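Morning run. Coffee first, then this:
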Amino acid sequence: MAEITEVKKYDNGGAEAIKGFNFQKANLILLAINNFEKEDFQIYIEAEDDIVVNYNSYRAFIQVKKQVHSFTTITKPSRKAFINPDGKRDYKYTPSILEKNLEAGTKEDTFKIFVQDIMLTDKKELNIKKPGSICSELYELSEGAKGRIIEKLSGELVNKIENFYFFISPIHEDLNEAEKYLIGCLNGIDVSVDNSRGRAIIAELSLTIDQKAQEVIYDEVHKELKSMNTDYFSKVLVTCKSLNGFDNILNSLNYNVPFKKKIRKARLKIELNNTSLKEDMKQALEEIDEVEDLDLERATDEDIINYLVEKFKSTNSEKATLISVAIESLSELGDEI
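And here it is:
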């Protein structure tokens, strides 16, 4: 994994917005399908950039934009009007798409903007590179294009332009078409799925993306809450056994909607903070047929979860956390049957 060499700035502003960007989620899933078997592969969602990809010593910062773009649109700062304290109209300028992309990382990293397409005039000034490290093909800037773009950049960003690329995404902006394409990609890596199973996989990945995007991070430890790694992708894409297990059990329980939402959020922190608790609960499940006050033949999932919550309440974990870990343990036990 790429070594951390500087203090990072985290862009939590997009944390809620990702819910509305199906193009962005679909491209993240495409990256996962094509790369999850790489050693130490990780994707971070809405951290320093829209998407950050790590594996071994490689690190890429990716902006995802659904439109057709040009050199002008990616280098033009955005302007937003507001009324200042004097009651006068004023403007706030924010960095361009390219500046945002190049702000993070070092000159040793890779920087990419995923787009729907590039204006034909500018595309003629790009060279195709096949393959990229994580993309099937990339467009790199010609020397003339670099010169034009460097004029629009501040000095500290110029030395990163050598590692900048466009990727023209094959993902259609319509979600139904995007799903069909991704299902085809799943079958292409021998994750054999029909349309129903393929949509279930995409739904599982999309839900996890949404949940992780909502996490606000302050340091490198919290950043791991934004991560999806090889172990997670392997579980979803290869075994495909627990796609809906957690939600199926949770939905069968008699909790209200806000509390279920809290339980789902607690699930995100299991691998970071509660791995020991989960192992202990799974061990308790292995021995549950020896529990005298629980009739396993007649016990419901809710009875079993209540038993686990009571058994482990001495850990001083929040009830939502205990329930979440109990459900996760129970769903994983189902995978092993």
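The chain has a mean pLDDT of 85. Good start to the day.
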